[in-house]
Write a structure and sequence with these properties.
Length: 342
């Protein structure tokens, strides 16, 4: 009886080893990972760290190569999700803003002045709303591995300090290619123009575009926007979560063991990346102090000042709540209220 058991164990070990070897042999020599920005800053560094962690935890079986600065979607940021769905892009550390043109529910994070702080954002992502959003994108062909972050979007410009909606009058502001941003800036009195980031940087230098909205640590600092913009307004008007993700077609081809390893890497890097994106902003003013040291005039709006902007953009909130889904927005509001009481 013992000999039979030993023989069975040996057979199973051999069988599983052969199956594992065959499975690994079907893996691609390189998996392409899309990143909108360059390799510096929490976004780009997070992608590199994820690729390294996956290689480590899968014993070199899965090799991910990050492609920075939008190389894989030929300059059109809003195509990234569709290319993942088609399997052209294998992995991505993608912005919910860029994906929101395809997944309407992701516009939740772009509702004007909806998330007051990081605590409220974390509560929504960790709760049923976050799970629902990951389910929605998986149904569309992309598997969410973890929540990362680009950050709260603040405003910089070359014209004047912005403290009230009237200060935006006549300012030509670059926004991302998502309709809700056009609606929001029009409602506040600005002249929004949608363009990709590479074009925007040239426009700032040439003076054909006056301002832009982006996170401090992930974009404003790495791109040294103080070289083209004197004024910065901190108002947390929108948040830009990133989703660490993989094409479902690719994901389904991995072994259970490798899926577990990838999730381990995703959990580890998501925590690191979020912390890095908030460095000097959460419980500290170091990042804003850095802008001031480089010659920027930084205006941090008070809750009363923010309310004026929020009231001004109420029609945008009403319009886009219907697009996102009333129940989803209400559920997120409930999570935010609970977080505020803790």
């Amino acid at each position: 009886m013992k000999k039979k058991c030993i023989g069975l164990i040996v057979f199973l070990a051999f069988f599983l080893g052969v199956v594992g070897a065959v499975h690994s042999a079907s893996y691609k020599p390189e998996y392409k990972m899309s990143i909108v920005v360059g390799p510096t800053g929490p976004w780009g560094e997070g992608a590199a760290r994820f690729a390294d962690a996956v290689k480590k935890y899968t014993d070199g079986k899965i090799n991910i190569k990050p492609y920075y600065s939008g190389q894989l979607f030929a300059g059109k940021q809003t195509n990234e999700f569709l290319l993942m769905k088609q399997g052209v892009i294998d992995f991505a550390l993608g912005s919910t803003i860029n994906w929101s043109t395809t997944i309407k529910e992701l516009n939740l994070f772009s509702l004007p002045f909806f998330f007051p702080d990081y605590k409220s954002l974390d509560a929504v992502q960790a709760g049923d709303v976050g799970k629902k959003l990951f389910k929605v994108i998986e149904e569309k062909g992309v598997v969410g591995l973890g929540w990362c972050e680009n950050g709260f979007r603040e405003f910089t410009n070359s014209k004047r300090a912005v403290k009230r909606p009237e200060d935006l009058d006549g300012i030509k502001a670059r926004v991302v290619g998502s309709p809700i941003f056009i609606d929001t800036f029009k409602a506040m009195g600005a002249n929004p123009v949608s363009m990709n980031w590479g074009e925007a940087l040239s426009a700032f230098q040439q003076g054909t575009v006056d301002g832009q909205e982006n996170p401090v640590v992930s974009v404003i600092i790495p791109n040294k926007l103080w070289q083209v913009h004197k004024y910065a307004t901190v108002w947390h008007y929108a948040i830009d979560p990133l989703i660490l993700s993989v094409s479902k077609e690719v994901w389904d081809g991995f072994s259970p063991q490798d899926k577990t390893a990838i999730m381990k890497a995703a959990d580890e890097i998501s925590k690191w990346q979020k912390k890095a994106a908030r460095e000097g902003l959460e419980g500290s003013t170091a990042a804003l102090d850095g802008l001031k040291k480089n010659g920027m005039e930084v205006t941090v709006l008070t809750p009363a000042q923010i309310k004026v902007f929020k009231d001004k953009t109420k029609p945008v909130y009403d319009k886009w709540t219907k697009e996102i889904g009333v129940d989803l927005v209400k559920a997120a509001e409930a999570d935010i209220q609970k977080a505020a009481k803790k």
